[in-house]
């Protein structure tokens, strides 16, 4: 076991606010750690300190000698005049510096020190760096390698930065919201890439399926302290609930003792003067514990939605396409919708999924009237009142206070049944404390600004919510409450999201954008759709397996030629039986490792050893299972 990073007594303050205090933890080789915290509690600040981009007020970060760290920032920056492929060489990592050193050496007469550079090039796998760059960029749907960085959208820039981090194959990967701006296919690819590799990982993400499948340790930053859970996200939820229950019990017990001690302390000073001094000191410690509030701040969104009639909207044979500027043929167009018809039902909750660039956000803008169709039309019911949470967000006046931004929309919010909340009370339900409400908007984190934006959308009491990538930059606590609200919402919902967990919880059917104007209506959530899609992909191979092979034999009676499938050879039969035993053994070992990692009883050395072994097991299982499937077709 090699300790890669040791954090000792780390404290960071912003003004008079403490983000975290006296944090100490370590990350060992092979560990995959997920960091969870509410927005504004210092997740990105902590990552910046660990990556050397920021400094702490107290404490230190100790890195292993010659540790190569790859860091994906939440908002990456590149010079606008670089091309995509040049950006892959711009950061000045060890590999790109070595490539530049090689080029300078080759341009120098007699190439001094060439052999040493060649040896280091081999060790760093620098020869195929550009090929690796293009391969990973293509996986992330960045195919124009000569496009200037300045022409990329924010999402494309984040994907270029992610590719750059993965290309260098660092010893330690630090990723801040890596799934933002990735479509579902990319997320699943990245999930498999990180899960199977031996890279040591620390990441912040709101994608709970991603956390559950990739991470073997969860760290929670809460109330300035850090709690570590030796297991995946599901294990974290269970153990966190147990921790909070224990703390609530301790506070309740302290309250009971506090009432007794308070009665004693209120006696006459003369009486108290005869008591032991230690009891008086113990009282003040007990008072602090009793007044500690162990409660979950929740976004309580039990709000009235305005009446909505039976007619919602009807898409009447809508077509939309855009010219392709980079195409050699000037008449070539990118088709988004082609004669699309859909009649939206009352109280329907629809999810929209598909790869980036297939037209999901354009469909939303067509519905809202922000973009005009080429042909056809959207007919919207008279009672429909849209609430639109856009991917781009809104531009707040950064010099305004949080409370003033909300009061510009409404002083009071109607909850229905004669109940009202003031703007200040409403913000408290969105986890903005009275002191935070007096903050200027420019002081808010990215996630807090998104939460404020969500607040301004919902306080207008819409009856049709249109949410375009609502999960980006929102913390998991806010997502859980938003999910509950949408499940109980008495209105219509359309959600465009790449968050698989969120979609499974909220929607009852999907529109799947395939590209080139092809849109499939699927009756189910995202997990059900993927299961159906996997079954559909198996059908061609199953049909092929049932087709007689080219092996033929001549009938001895009639002389006719008949075809029959090739049978398994003796050697293949022995291999088939051995594979069954190997797969069974590997699955047992995998179950034992997962159970051990979730037990919380392992030492750091054992956790590291098992965390390294688990992805190796997955690769072996995939390889042997694939071969077993091939042979099973001959059985």
In whole angstroms, the N-to-C terminal distance is 44 Å
Counted by DSSP, the helix tally is: 21
The whole-number mean of residue pLDDT values reads 81
For the largest sheet, list the strands in their spatial order: 5-6-7-3-8-9
In the CATH hierarchy, the architecture of the largest domain is 3-Layer(aba) Sandwich
Query: Biggest sheet: strands, sense, closure?
Result: 6 strands, mixed
Percent of sequence in beta strands: 15-25%
Counting DSSP E segments of at least 2 residues, the number of strands comes to 22
Rg computed from alpha carbons, rounded to a whole number of angstroms:
30 Å
- Global geometry: globular
The overall number of domains is: 5
What is the helix fraction of residues, given as a range? 40-55%
What structural category do the secondary elements indicate?
alpha/beta
CATH topology assignment of the largest domain: Rossmann fold
Q: State the CATH class of the largest domain.
A: Alpha Beta
Low-confidence stretches: 549-564
The name of the CATH superfamily of the largest domain reads P-loop containing nucleotide triphosphate hydrolases
Give structural notes.
The chain is an alpha/beta fold and 635 residues long. It folds into five domains: 1-67 and 171-231, P-loop containing nucleotide triphosphate hydrolases (Rossmann fold, 3-Layer(aba) Sandwich); 79-168, no CATH class; 246-290; 313-531, P-loop containing nucleotide triphosphate hydrolases (Rossmann fold), CATH 3.40.50; 553-632. Helix content is 43%, strand content 22%. The chain has 21 helices and 22 strands. It has a six-stranded mixed sheet, with helices on both faces. A six-stranded mixed sheet has the order 14-17-18-12-19-20, with helices on both faces. It has a three-stranded antiparallel sheet with strand order 2-1-4. Strand 6, helix 7 (184-196) and strand 7 form a beta-alpha-beta unit. Helix 2 (84-90) packs across helix 6 and helix 3 runs antiparallel to helix 4. The chain is globular and about 80 Å long. Mean pLDDT is 81; it is low at 549-564.
């Amino acid at each position: 076991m090699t300790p890669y990073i040791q954090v000792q007594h780390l404290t960071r303050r912003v003004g008079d606010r403490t983000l975290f205090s006296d944090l100490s933890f370590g990350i060992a080789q092979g560990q995959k750690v997920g960091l969870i915290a509410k927005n504004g509690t210092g997740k990105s600040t902590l990552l910046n300190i660990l990556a050397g981009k920021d400094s702490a007020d107290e404490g230190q970060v100790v890195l292993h000698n010659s540790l190569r760290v790859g860091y994906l920032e939440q908002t990456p920056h590149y010079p606008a005049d670089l091309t995509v492929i040049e950006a892959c060489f711009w950061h000045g990592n060890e590999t790109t510096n070595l490539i530049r050193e090689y080029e300078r050496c080759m341009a120098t007469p007699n190439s001094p020190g060439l052999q040493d550079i060649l040896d280091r090039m081999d060790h760093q796998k620098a020869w195929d760096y550009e090929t690796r760059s293009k391969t990973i960029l293509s996986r992330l749907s960045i195919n124009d390698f000569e496009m200037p960085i300045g022409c990329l959208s924010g999402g494309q820039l984040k994907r270029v930065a992610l590719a750059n981090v993965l290309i260098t194959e660092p010893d330690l990967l630090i990723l801040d919201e890596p799934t933002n701006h990735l479509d579902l296919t990319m997320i699943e690819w990245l999930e498999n890439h990180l899960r199977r590799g031996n890279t040591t990982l620390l990441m912040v993400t709101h994608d709970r399926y991603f956390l559950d499948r990739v991470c073997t340790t969860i760290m929670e930053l809460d109330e300035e302290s850090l709690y570590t859970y030796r297991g995946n996200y599901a294990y974290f939820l269970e153990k966190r609930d147990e921790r909070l229950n224990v703390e609530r019990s301790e506070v309740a017990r302290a309250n009971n003792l506090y009432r007794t001690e308070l009665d004693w302390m209120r006696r006459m000073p003369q009486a108290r003067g005869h008591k032991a001094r230690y009891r008086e000191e113990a009282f003040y410690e007990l008072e602090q514990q009793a007044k500690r509030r162990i409660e979950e701040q929740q976004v309580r969104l039990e709000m009235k939605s305005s009446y909505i009639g039976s007619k919602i909207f009807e898409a009447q044979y809508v077509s939309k396409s855009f010219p392709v500027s980079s195409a050699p043929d000037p008449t070539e167009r990118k088709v988004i919708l082609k004669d699309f018809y859909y009649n939206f039902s009352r109280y329907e909750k629809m999810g929209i999924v598909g790869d980036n660039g297939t037209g999901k956000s354009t469909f939303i803008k067509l519905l809202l009237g922000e973009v005009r169709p080429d042909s056809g039309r959207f007919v919207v019911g008279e009672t429909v009142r849209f609430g639109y949470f856009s991917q781009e967000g809104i531009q707040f006046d950064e010099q305004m206070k949080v409370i003033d931004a909300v009061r510009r929309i409404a002083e009071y919010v109607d909850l229905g049944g004669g109940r009202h909340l003031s703007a200040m009370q409403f913000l408290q339900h969105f986890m903005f404390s009275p002191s935070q409400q007096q903050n200027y908007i420019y002081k808010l984190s990215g996630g807090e600004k998104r939460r404020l934006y969500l607040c301004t959308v919902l306080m207008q009491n819409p009856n049709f919510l249109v949410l375009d990538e609502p999960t980006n930059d929102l913390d998991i606590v806010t997502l859980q409450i938003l999910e509950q609200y949408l499940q109980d919402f008495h209105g219509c919902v359309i959600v465009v999201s790449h968050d698989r967990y969120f979609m499974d919880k909220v929607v009852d059917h999907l529109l799947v954008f395939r590209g080139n104007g092809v849109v499939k209506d699927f009756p189910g959530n995202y997990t059900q759709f993927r299961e159906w899609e996997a079954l559909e992909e198996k059908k061609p191979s199953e049909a092929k397996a049932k087709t007689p092979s080219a092996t033929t034999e001549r009938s001895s009676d009639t002389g006719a030629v008949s075809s029959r499938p090739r049978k398994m050879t003796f050697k293949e039969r022995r291999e088939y039986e051995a594979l069954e035993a190997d797969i069974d053994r590997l699955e047992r070992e995998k179950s034992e490792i997962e159970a051990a990692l979730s037990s919380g009883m392992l030492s750091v050395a054992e956790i590291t050893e098992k965390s390294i072994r688990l992805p190796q097991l997955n690769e072996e299982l995939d390889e042997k299972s694939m071969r077993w499937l091939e042979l099973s077709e001959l059985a």
